[in-house]
Known about the structure:
Layout: E1 12-13, E2 19-20, E3 24-29, E4 36-43, E5 48-49, E6 52-53, E7 58-71, E8 77-80, E9 84-87, E10 93-97, E11 103-110, E12 118-119, H1 125-129
Antiparallel strand pairs: 1-3, 2-5, 3-4, 4-11, 6-12, 7-8, 7-9, 7-10, 7-11
Amino acid sequence: MELKRGTELKAARGNADYFTGEVWIEPLVATGLVAIKGVRVSFPPGARTAWHTHPGGQILYVVSGRGWVQKEGEAAQLMSAGDTVIIGSGEKHWHGAASDSPMVHLATQPIVEGIDSVWLEAVSEEQYKGC
Length: 131
């Protein structure tokens, strides 16, 4: 059994290649015991991920605020505190805060053959403003 103290898990700024805006990522599941990645992600208003996929799918749980999630080829959907989003394996999507609200979500995804996320192109301002 491992007990990870909150003081041990440090947030880091999200890579600018994968995020628009000052996004902070805090590891929650950091162990070799299971092949799962779990993080808390904090988005200021207007911040978002790039388009991406997950080989094992992803589950998002919105802790606070409001934001958008969009699967390629579908309309963006508003998500709010208390909502859960289930994203299938290989589904191209993005997610982030609404333009007028910060948003924090928990993200959990399996690690498949050493990969948890496949990052693609940035979400353009046009795409984001279309929400």
